[in-house]
Amino acid sequence: MMARKRATTKTVSAMLDKHDPVxxxxxxxxxxxxxxxxxxxEHMGFCLGNVVKYCWRxxxxxxxxxxxxxxxxxxxxxxxxxxxxxxxxIQ
Length: 91
Prior knowledge:
Number of domains: 1
Oligomer: single chain
Strand content: under 5%
Largest sheet: none
Shape: globular
Low-confidence stretches: none
Mean pLDDT: 79
């Protein structure tokens, strides 16, 4: 049996430096912290993860307004799911 090589910070960094639009799109890996968006959102529920994702990439894909509207859509959906109603300021 071959031993699996354990990924180190250096090898992960090297992988992220390469253009990989499927596994590590640049609009999710370009944060100055070095953190990839999925490392954060995979610990959230679907709607809240999408809120963060669309805010994260808003200035990276060329249409910030559209991404922010998508984030708002998911946030409103999550608020409704948690029991908020139009009478409480959510439409």
